[in-house]
Amino acid sequence: MRGLLYKNKWYFDKITQSLQDLGYIIEWKLLNSVDFGVPQNRERLMVVGHRGKFQFPQISAKRITAGEALGELAFQVLPDSKFLTPSMDKYIAKYEKASCCKRPRDLHLDKQARTLTCRNLAGATGDMHRIKLPDGRRRRLSIREAARLQSFPDWFEFYGSETSSYNQIGNAVSPLLAFYLAKSVRNYLESSYRLSARELKKYTLPQQLSLPL
Q1: CB 39 within 8 A of CB 66
Q2: Family, per the entry (predicted)?
C-alpha cells in the first residue's frame, strides 16, 4: 500500500533492510493497475529482491474505461439488483457535500473506476460503488461487474456468500497487473545474469525506481 512510504515508512524500511541483509538487491516501485489494462485506479507498492537485473513491467499504451469493461452489463437490471433507497440517496448527498466532492461518486463509464475495496463493494456506505441508470435510479455493482473492473475474466468463479465474493474482489491484486509482474519475474528467472557477492555489496540501500506524485 502507498501508505507504507509515508506514515509507516519505518516499517517499510525494516522489511527492505531485512531482505537486503539476506543478500538481495531491493528495488521498489509504485504501480497503478490502470496502467496495465485494468479499468480501475489502484495503486500498489511492489517490492522485489533479486541478485541480477530485474525490470518492472512497462506501462501499457492504452487505458481501459469502466464502460469498455462492463459493456452491456452496465445497463442491465437483474432480479437481484440492489437499488439505493431514498434515504440512502440523502445520506450519499450529505456525505459528498461534507467530502467536498466536485463530481458525484457514481461510476463514470467514460473514465476508470475508483479503487475497489471490501468496504465500498460490500457495504452500504457513502462511498459505495454504484451505477446510475438512464431512468435516474442508482444500483450497487453486481459481483460480476466488480470482477470485470478488477480484470477478472468472466469464467472465474467466486465461492462463498455475496459478502465473501465482494471481499475476494476487493482484496485481490488485479489479475492483469499480476500477469505482467509474473512475466517480469519469469524473464528474470530465465536470465543467466547474476551479480557476484562482491558486486552485491555495492547495493546498500533499497532502490527507488519511481514515485508518482
Answers
A1: yes
A2: Belongs to the class I-like SAM-binding methyltransferase superfamily. C5-methyltransferase family.
